């Protein structure tokens, strides 16, 4: 009922809006929980990146087309919602809820303070020069930071976190913006900080003067979606043994051979709720910088398009290409290391991560209960199968055979919606492949996308059907938790890349349309309708070459 009411309310609130795009790197909110698997990727590929975890943060700022007031913000950043580990027994949105509430409370408080300052200016108690950024009065958006800290705290039942100068080290944010050709002269300093960009300049339609303050509508909605979340962890201190306090075994994530004793530590360990609030605030602070910066860029414009396809993942033949290796996918199955859990939530019994054989006792149990066929074992190798879920249909299919992927395009922004948790390198590989295909199409005069030679590719994970994890072929060979949970075998990622490239190239002329700088946006749900418009030049993507 609540979902249907929200959709109806969103539909009723549709009106023109402007969309702005910005992106950067947030390096203080996540670590890779399966580094040995990541290291199995080719060295030349790893050398393309500075970190073994996806630090990309991208944000779309939504503003009212008439007033320029903020209506919403949609961001993507990869970090597991496992700040509260599997000992937690309460319903919680974890660090993502803390981030989203922080943005919304910040916006609400900023608007309230802006209204108060404008009222004071109107009655003469505050001078306009003092109320402006750099004046004697603090900018409304900057002052409202305390509301964001209160929101993250309240979301997790905590007392208010301090957002003051000289705060504890866990609160330190490491963030820098991705720049464009047009904006290199406007690059912001990359030192840690709570705010960046030009917070006093309000985005407004062309020809209208910007407001002195950032302004927001009452129904402002924020979302911080997942990206390549598969091997990311919010437990930034690393994994340690409960009995000795020493680091866990790196390869197996065990302590004296036991997975139950290996636990990740968040920035405020042993207080998991405070850790969740801190990781949420890290995302909020990055989103704040991007929200400010997006307002300095031209609105998104150009082509509006989408592709969506349902796939039978049980037997897709993958051809060799620049981006894929030959092979085929398999019916779903879970490996032995799946039962070992992760450092964010350890498993039980004598299962360990990185095991390509499996405990002898459990192999016997599996063969007595539901033995996988030789063909299935060969297809899934080197995964030692624990649960051949593709065979289990009672009382329903245990895991999906059919999945869905979609490609959504808003001008230079391409959103790849994928039905699972891509590892860092799996997501990078898919984004590189899509970026190369779209860029090639633009450079050769193809109709997709001929309005931008530098598309921004965002991977939106956990969309549509949930199909567990997706790793690279190389990571799959290691068989840590994520590889053991890659349902359709070692060629799962290759199948998604192959299909994604096929569908971003098909049917373009029949379905491509353009949209103007005015899109129709609901305050609680976003919808875009196509309208004729001549595409404009927009900044270059921020991804590494």
UniProtKB/TrEMBL annotation:
It comes from the Eukaryota. Keywords: Hydrolase, Lipid metabolism, Metal-binding, Sphingolipid metabolism, Zinc. InterPro entries: Ceramidase_alk, NEUT/ALK_ceramidase_N. The active site is at 233 (nucleophile). It is an enzyme of class 3 (hydrolase). GO terms for biological process: ceramide catabolic process; long-chain fatty acid biosynthetic process; sphingosine biosynthetic process. The keyword Transferase does not apply. Belongs to the neutral ceramidase family. This is Neutral ceramidase. It comes from Volvox reticuliferus.
């Amino acid at each position: 009922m609540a979902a249907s009411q929200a959709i109806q309310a969103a539909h009723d609130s549709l009106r023109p809006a402007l969309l702005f795009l910005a992106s950067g790197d947030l390096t203080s909110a996540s670590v890779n929980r399966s580094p040995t698997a990541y290291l199995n990727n080719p060295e030349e590929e790893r050398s393309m990146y500075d970190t073994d975890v996806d630090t990309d943060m991208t944000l779309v700022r939504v503003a009212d087309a008439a007033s320029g007031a903020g209506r919403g913000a949609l961001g993507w950043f990869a970090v597991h919602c496992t700040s509260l580990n599997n000992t937690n027994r309460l319903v919680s949105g974890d660090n993502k809820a803390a981030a989203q509430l922080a943005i919304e409370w910040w916006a609400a408080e900023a608007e309230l303070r802006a209204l108060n300052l404008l009222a004071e200016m109107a009655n003469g108690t505050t001078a306009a020069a003092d109320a402006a950024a750099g004046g004697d009065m603090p900018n409304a958006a900057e002052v409202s930071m305390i509301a964001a800290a209160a929101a993250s705290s309240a979301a997790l039942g905590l007392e208010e976190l301090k957002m003051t100068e000289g705060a504890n080290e866990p609160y330190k944010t490491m963030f820098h913006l991705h720049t464009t050709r047009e904006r290199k002269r406007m690059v912001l300093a990359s030192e840690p900080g709570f705010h960046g960009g030009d917070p006093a300049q309000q985005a407004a339609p062309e020809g209208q003067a910007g407001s002195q303050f950032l302004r927001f509508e009452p129904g402002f909605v924020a979302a911080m979606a997942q990206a390549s979340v598969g091997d990311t962890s919010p437990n930034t201190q690393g994994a340690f043994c409960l009995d000795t306090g020493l680091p866990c075994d790196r390869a197996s994530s065990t302590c004296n051979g036991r997975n139950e004793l290996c636990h990740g530590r968040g920035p405020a360990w042993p207080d998991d709720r405070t850790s969740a609030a801190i990781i949420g605030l890290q995302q909020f602070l990055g989103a704040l910088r991007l929200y400010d910066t997006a307002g300095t860029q031209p609105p998104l414009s150009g082509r509006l398009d989408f592709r969506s396809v349902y796939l039978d993942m049980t037997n897709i033949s993958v051809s060799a290409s620049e981006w894929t290796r030959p092979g085929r996918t398999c019916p779903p199955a879970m490996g032995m290391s799946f039962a070992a859990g992760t450092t964010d939530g350890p498993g039980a019994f004598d299962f360990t991560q990185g095991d390509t054989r499996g405990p002898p006792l459990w192999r016997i149990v599996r063969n007595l209960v539901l033995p996988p066929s030789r063909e299935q074992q060969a297809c899934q190798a080197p995964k030692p199968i624990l649960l051949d879920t593709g065979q289990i249909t009672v009382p329903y299919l245990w895991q999906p055979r059919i999945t869905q992927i979609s490609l959504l395009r808003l001008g230079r922004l391409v959103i790849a919606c994928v039905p699972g948790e891509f590892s860092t390198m799996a997501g990078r590989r898919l984004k590189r492949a899509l970026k190369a295909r779209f860029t090639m199409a633009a450079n050769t005069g193809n109709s997709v996308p001929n309005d931008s030679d530098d598309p921004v590719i965002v991977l939106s994970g956990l969309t549509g059907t949930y199909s567990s994890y997706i790793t690279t072929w190389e990571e799959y060979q290691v068989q840590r938790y994520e590889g053991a949970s890659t349902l359709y075998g070692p060629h799962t990622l290759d199948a998604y890349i192959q299909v994604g490239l096929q569908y971003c190239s098909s049917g373009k002329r029949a379905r491509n349309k353009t949209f103007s700088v005015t899109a129709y946006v609901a305050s609680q749900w976003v919808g875009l309708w196509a309208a004729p418009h001549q595409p404009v030049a927009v900044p270059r993507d921020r991804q590494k070459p």
